[in-house]
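Not sure how to ask, but would you mind making up any protein sequence you like and the tokens describing how it folds?
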Amino acid sequence: MATLKERLASVPDITEKAIETEIGVVRIRRLTVRERDLLLKDHKTASTNGDGRSEMERGSAVSRQMVAAGMVDPSATYEELLDMPAAFVESIAKEIMAFNGWSVQGRAALDDSFRPPAGSAI
């Protein structure tokens, strides 16, 4: 019997997606639960500790972390993203959020992807 990880790996459309951008096709992936929890923890810690950064700076940092983790091809590190156009990084972050179901439209698309067909046994 296949494990959940093996079954997910056998269906790449569930874990990765190609998107069209101003630089051509970029591949993004769904983040793991561990990656998501780390992003949320870092953001929450920064905002509750009064780290001196504005909400916009914290949001920008989270976007860079998300893109560094979720952009597969081409890949970029958190540091490399500091030198890329902000609008590009934010647009990729928005796509990753939607693909992971972290936006209203993304949540609806994710629900549709994993909803069993009508009449099927659950």
Notes: The beta strands are 16-21, 24-29, 71-73. The mean pLDDT is 79. The longest strand covers residues 16-21. The chain has seven helices and three strands.
